[in-house]
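Case study B.
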Amino acid sequence: MEIRKAAMAGTLESSDAQVTVEPGQGRIDLNIESSVIHQFGRQIRATVLETLKRLEVSDAKVTVVDKGALDCTLKARVECAVYRSNEITENLPWGGVIR
Amino acid sequence: MSHPNKKRLRRSMMFLNCQKPGLIKDPYIYKPDSIMLDLEDAVAENQKDAARYSLYHALQEIDYRGVERVVRINGLDTPHWKEDIRVCVAGGADTIRIAKTECARDVHTVEEHVLAAEKEFGRPEGSTLLMAALESCKGVLHALEVCESSDRLIGIALSGGDYTKDLQTVITGTGVELQGARQQMIIAARAAGVQCWDTVFTNLDAMDVFEEEVKMIKMMGFDGKSLVNPRQIDIVHKIFTPSQKEIIFAEKVVREIEEKKAQGIGVFTVDGKMIDIAFYDGAKRTIALAKASGVYEGDL
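Model:
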């Protein structure tokens, strides 16, 4: 999927993550900020990149501000931001690329 | 054939806002019988989409350890409910709570879309149960037709806030404004053989009033209550679980009725109380409730 415009999902509350996607420069630029970056930074990065790959996003600037989100929350916030950037809210592929 | 979970124990049904990951990640630690993951009123209008992604992954990835996963979808008068149904069924929700139900047709409309979603996502047809929230005077007056509307329907729940608004009064704390609806709904539910749940109690500083209300709705015949805070769960379970005294008496009633029946005796006394066949179903229900609540160790 293409990132058509900047979009954000999530909050800065505990157990959440705020994910912003913006049109990129031909690649994925991923910036992660997390209070648990030393313990879980690698895992957060892997989850975000896997989710972007599933959604076939290959050109985006992605910013994640993590507040101790579980993997399932990270995925949910990345997916929400990407679909928001395309203004898609219906007939989503649950169980397809969203899984 | 009826769904095996249609009549499971539902004393406590705790609301959780799907917009808040911190709330939906581990509510099973409080051991409610059911959680109600909310896509409706608790979720801000511009976050309806975000709540669905969280819901989908929570349903798919979090082990709720046997706690029933009910999802409250947005009303049929909103643009959200169709996608809500798709995500519920795709994620494998146990039950969908239909908001603002006014008549059987509302249940049929949701049922048609649930069936379509079960086909789309390869879920067994009929596997998604439904419950209906009655939130208006019209809904309460149509309680019986709602209760009889679908094989998937497990029961009806009163939503007191919207109902009292429609009635042009407010929640007073005395329960007087809810009397008619409660009575009408429990009678309709029993006539149709489905369950019935009372509305939420939101004043967390008045736990004594809450406890009295739970005792009252138990006496009225309700199966349980919608809850807004984990602190309310233990109180509901304590009141809705038969005491050892009640269990022992129920056992005696069942055994005596069976024994006396064989001897051709119709009426007799147990612990000084007159007993006849009319007490049999109630005693069996007490034992079934004790079993479902995990406090029965007998052999009936």
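Strands of chain A lie at 7-9, 17-23, 28-34, 60-66. The remaining cases will be described in the next quarterly update.
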